[in-house]
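Hi R.,

Here are the chain sequences for the assembly we discussed:
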Amino acid sequence: DAGITQSPRHKVTETGTPVTLRCHQTENHRYMYWYRQDPGHGLRLIHYSYGVKDTDKGEVSDGYSVSRSKTEDFLLTLESATSSQTSVYFCAISEEGTSSGANVLTFGAGSRLTVL
Amino acid sequence: DQQVKQNSPSLSVQEGRISILNCDYTNSMFDYFLWYKKYPAEGPTFLISISSIKDKNEDGRFTVFLNKSAKHLSLHIVPSQPGDSAVYFCAASGNDYKLSFGAGTTVTVRA
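And here is the predicted structure of the full complex:
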């Protein structure tokens, strides 16, 4: 997966508990993203980062927070998990100035989270 | 409100025939469009992209067509092969380094 590692790959937790998902990259890319995938919705952006300590909200950021203290790590935290946050979470990375001009994201393998 | 729409949730095609996947968008500020392919239990992988200044881009069996006036793009796969069975996502971006995705189309290639 082009130097992207997500952990854990699977997690089952209970409503109200905190959960942290980790994304680690070895590509030294500037941009990192967290998406969630749900049936009928495709991939929706939760938060993204454009550098160390620089983050911004995506379209479905409520209930989530992120942190990026190092270029290689981007953490997604659910402070108090709810059943509506049961989903598959994908981390992605991208770099500036690709030859094609398009912002091509490279995705990790995903983290499946189940909130009971 | 979803800015990228894939209105066909599924497509079944015979091996060797053409697969045509469609995508519509609403944001006129989008300037790049991408297609991703996803197998079960894996992350999406990049397939092909097109800039808004072009109307066609080809890469082997995959061709993407863009109709800016209609805010519509399509992906043609010819010939379709069994390994093409997957979920295909259309995506679009402006100048803000974020991608907006459609809901996906599941393609099944029949032998």
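The CA atoms of residues 14 and 110 of chain B lie 5 Å apart. The first strand of chain B starts at residue 4 and ends at 5.

Let me know if anything looks off.

Best,
T.
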